[in-house]
Design goal:
By secondary structure, the protein is an alpha/beta fold. The protein has eleven helices and eight strands.
């Protein structure tokens, strides 16, 4: 299974989303073995679901709290996401880890909560440039994947995004991607999650994705900037379907 997810982050307004969804409805052609999804800002999730539901594009949130309800001002629960029709949720994105202090301990609870509410958890992992250059890359990734020892088995997608390649225009080489995805696949098997799809993310565009998607253990992409343009997003899906 290949999965291409557009992570809109904190971008786009209603008029932009209207045009994006219209382009997807007219241009998206589903194909067996490849899923497409959009991770939209909270306030637009319901609109995106209404506009894209009929064409089969999946709906993802960009984060969520692990408690089903409670006094957590400003948070959104997995139950609420499920209630409005979400299919999955991104968890542990590097921006959540490094800017907002997301911890592995919280991610254990979030993965479990997502599964309990029927949402597909997309666990994001990745090293900084300092960690890579310091020879700590595999240790960092191993620690991030170790949360699966506590979550137990269940539905899961992993997205490997080298932090130094997110939004920088710098892309990991094919050999670097091959090396890391092979390592991640081995770690997943060691943690009881063999066969889990592993997406690649980090300045993915239609210019480099056709080559990246052919790398062993690369099962799609988690895409930022390029996925803000519907024509580019549709092209990425076509490349995954090829």
């Amino acid at each position: 299974m290949r999965i291409v997810i557009a992570n809109w982050k904190m971008n786009l307004l209603s008029k932009d989303i209207e045009a994006f969804c219209a382009a997807c409805v007219s241009g998206y052609k589903p194909k067996a073995g490849v899923e497409a999804g959009i991770a939209a800002p909270y306030i637009y999730l319901k609109d995106v679901k209404a506009k894209l539901g009929p064409c089969g594009v999946k709906l993802y949130a960009q984060n969520a709290h692990f408690e089903a309800k409670g006094a957590f001002t400003g948070e959104i629960s997995m139950a609420q996401l499920k209630d409005i029709g979400c299919d999955g949720v991104l968890l542990g994105h590097s921006e959540r880890r490094h800017i907002f202090g997301e911890t592995n301990a919280n991610l254990v609870k979030k993965v479990k909560a997502a599964r309990e509410h029927g949402l597909m958890p997309v666990l994001c992992i990745g090293e900084t440039l300092e960690e890579r250059d310091g020879g700590k890359m595999f240790d960092v990734l191993r620690e991030q994947l170790a949360v699966l020892k506590e979550t137990g088995a269940g539905p899961l997608v992993v997205a490997y995004e080298p932090v130094w390649a997110i939004g920088t225009g710098r892309v990991a080489t094919v050999e670097q991607i091959r090396e890391v995805h092979a390592f991640v696949a081995e770690e997943l098997a060691r943690n009881g999650a063999a066969g889990t799809p592993i997406q690649y993310g980090g300045s993915v565009t239609p210019d480099n994705f056709a080559e990246i998607i052919q790398v062993p253990h690369v099962a799609g992409g988690l895409v930022g900037g390029a996925a803000l343009v519907p024509e580019k997003f549709l092209k990425l899906i076509e490349q995954a379907q090829a």
